[in-house]
Design brief:
Order of helices and strands of chain B: HHEHEHHEEEEEEEHHEHHEEEEH
Oligomer: heterodimer
Structural class of chain A: alpha+beta
Strand content of chain A: 25-35%
Number of helices of chain B: 10
Number of helices of chain A: 6
Low-confidence stretches of chain B: 8-27
Strand order of the largest sheet of chain A: 5-6-2-1-8
Largest interface: A-B, 30 and 31 residues
Shape of chain B: globular
Shape of chain A: elongated
Strand content of chain B: 15-25%
Structural class of chain B: alpha+beta
Radius of gyration of chain B: 21 Å
Chain lengths: 216, 342
């Protein structure tokens, strides 16, 4: 109701509502998957009509200035509204960074809040599923979630599933076996490698001795 | 001489002539652009020259582009409003020299749309032809890389020229209103982008549509301004599951962006896109019908190894068919970094 009223007020006031986001809070998330870690960048863009309501969430002491403490507190609140998990196990996202634009920029609908968070992934099987639910400001939110193409070639995305408003997102991926060169290296550095080296040494010694005896 | 041998000689001769002509055209294109750049620069006074020129490696200026009006996201360089008639004409001649005829016409129509918006909004000073900026990064050269930027509300052209080749990615091509009338003639700056997309969608069978049409809504561009250097996981229908005719339609749709740049560069660009066509994806989200003569109101994305195109109608300010954002990227060569590194 408040949001609709604010939008109507701004429309009547002849602000440049035509040019930018109006009555939505766009929340775009890009997930990045690594072998033992998931990281995400959220870009949150308040529409001009909903900004007055959101400002109260950002500037909790109402002094017209969003302090570093308030920025961090808001980002932590956003993370609490997320539910991140892998293979049915809940993960606790850790805040990595938060950046706020100037209040004036957000007031005009052009400011983007950037939040980065990450979580360590517990060991698991070859096929894995990461799930992300976002309920932050769901009355006014426009959610978008995507996965970046993994840098690690051993990780291959199988499918992405979302509900209609993208508040629920699931990512299925497969993590292939450890690459051959690494396995070879591990084999040599292990006990088996030591035993093999000793065996090779003994065979060489035996061959040399045997050839020596026959040469005489 | 035997008839067939004569025919072969003539064909080889003609092919050689064509190749020579092609090389000449490419060379002429870059040299013409450099001449146009220098012709523009000599019309400027010292202060204006300082305002328009940036170092080629000025990363801050390189990424200073947006879909938003310049009063909201200030651009640097020189605005058309700051130039006199001769300077403005020289600036637009420079922009035109980097683009195809249709590409420049599209740019003119986008600028005209913003002027129309200004008029409709009671002469709103936030919009209009005067608020489009030009800037040059580096020194115009036929050999060394340099860059031309031209943009404002709903337009961000980033043309990197490296030798014979011009690279247009990343560029934001939008329009508002995306349908208007000038002297009784209806103009749709992004009409081809809409019509060809719905034609491609309608050519798909039910099984293909199931893959192409996403089950969720998309409110905006995913890889818009500020999202350089990112590659998202492709979705939708892979073109390897299309028939030849549908793949040709997809390539034709991509040509709406690829053909904006001058022909001397678009031929090679289209060849790249054609080579990658089997690895290219088409995804659609939103209404699958369109009112006659109007623009689609659905989001779509085309993604291949060397291209990302997004078409995102905006519901801001009313009818989404009248307010369009599109994004054109090459994840392997945005800002012509490959050519510039050589």
């Amino acid at each position: 109701m408040k949001v609709a009223a604010a939008a109507m007020f701004l429309g009547l006031a002849g602000t440049p509502a035509l040019a930018h986001r109006l009555d939505e809070y766009l929340q775009g998330t890009l997930l990045s998957i690594e072998k033992d870690r998931v990281q995400a960048q959220m870009t949150l863009t308040p529409g001009v009509a909903v900004f007055p309501l959101l400002l109260a969430e950002f500037d909790t002491d109402g002094n017209g200035f969003i302090s570093e403490t308030e920025k961090r507190a808001y980002a932590e609140r956003v993370l609490r509204d997320l539910r991140l998990g892998i293979d049915g196990v809940r993960l606790m996202p850790r805040l990595l960074s938060v950046q706020f634009p100037a209040v004036e920029e957000m007031k005009e609908g052009r400011g983007e809040i950037r939040i980065e968070f990450g979580a360590d992934l517990p060991g698991g099987g070859r096929e894995r599923r990461i799930a992300l639910e976002n309920h932050h400001e769901n009355r006014i939110a426009a959610y978008q979630v995507n996965c970046l193409v993994p840098r690690d070639r051993n990780i291959r995305v199988l499918a992405q599933h979302r509900n209609y408003d993208q508040s629920n997102y699931e990512l299925d991926y497969v993590q292939s076996e450890i690459a051959q060169p690494t396995a070879w290296k591990a084999w040599w550095s292990g006990d088996l490698g030591l035993l093999s080296a000793m065996a090779l040494f003994l065979i060489t010694r035996f061959t040399v001795a045997w050839r020596g005896n026959h040469a005489r | 001489m035997h008839h067939s041998a004569l025919k072969t000689v003539v064909m080889v001769g003609m092919a050689a002539l064509c190749m020579a002509r092609g090389a000449e055209t490419a060379q002429t294109s870059t040299s013409r652009t450099v001449r146009a750049a220098n012709a523009f620069l000599v019309t400027l006074d010292q202060k204006q020259r300082q305002s328009v020129a940036f170092a080629f490696d000025d990363e801050k200026q390189r990424v200073r582009w947006s879909n938003l009006p310049v009063k909201m996201v200030p651009r640097a360089g020189l605005s058309m409003g700051e130039l006199n008639a001769a300077q403005r004409s020289a600036a637009l001649a420079l922009v035109a020299s980097t683009l195809s005829r249709r590409g420049f016409e599209k740019v003119e129509q986008i600028v005209e749309a913003d002027e129309t918006l200004k008029t409709r909004e009671g002469n709103n000073p936030m919009f209009g032809k005067d608020l489009f900026f030009i800037s040059i990064l580096g020194t115009p050269s036929e050999k060394d890389p340099w860059m031309l930027q031209f943009g404002g509300h709903h337009l961000a052209l980033n043309v990197t020229i490296a030798g014979e080749r011009g690279v247009l990615t990343p560029s934001l091509i939008g329009a508002q209103p995306a349908l208007y009338t000038v002297n009784g003639k209806t103009v749709r700056p992004l009409g081809g982008e809409s019509d060809k997309a719905i034609a491609l969608l309608n050519s798909l069978d039910e099984n293909q549509k199931k893959q192409a049409i996403l089950s969720f809504k998309l409110a905006d561009l995913v890889l818009g301004p500020g999202q350089d250097g990112k590659t998202i996981q492709p979705e939708g229908l892979k073109a390897s599951s299309m028939n030849e005719h549908q793949r040709a339609m997809l390539l034709d749709l991509m040509s709406e962006w690829a053909n904006i740049v001058h022909e001397s560069s678009s031929v090679a660009r289209l060849a790249d896109l054609k080579a990658d066509i089997h690895e290219t994806w088409f995804a659609w989200s939103g209404p699958t019908t369109v009112a006659a003569g109007s623009n689609i109101t659905a989001y779509y994305r085309i993604q291949g190894p060397r291209v990302v195109i997004e078409y995102a109608p905006q519901k801001l300010g009313g009818d989404p068919a009248m307010h369009l954002h599109t994004m054109y990227r090459d994840p392997t060569n945005d800002y012509g970094r490959k050519g510039a590194a050589k």
